[in-house]
Amino acid sequence: MGPDCSARAQYTYDLFLYTRTYHTWTDSTRPEHFVPMDVLAKALQKRARELGLSHAAIARRIGISERRYGHYVSGRNEPDLATLSRIARTLQTTPSELLGFGPETKRSKRTVLRDRLNVAADAMDDRELEITVVQAEAIAAL
To answer: What is the Cα–Cα distance from 10 to 1, expressed in whole angstroms?
Structure first.
């Protein structure tokens, strides 16, 4: 862009240089939605902390390499839609929340603990899950 461009066009161009888009252009000067990759990266980091999971553990559960997931967490690369969906499912959230669309939900401590329990249960086989349920029921009966 140069001195002959409008301020709006310059702003759009500058924004394009620092972000990536998940949607198509609506016209020649304005993209419909820009999603800065640092929004996704911060959301991935925050959710992993809430669930007490390492990036390596999340990558294994999703079925991708640790290096590839590390690129998403650092904001270097963006996942495709199928991978984003698997990441959201593993982290017990939605793709929209990870991308920063909509209001940010505040989770209570109890909700976060339930999410952690669900994530752990998803990683267990049937025998391990049955043992865990029996233990949880015994603790609840105290």
So the answer is: 6
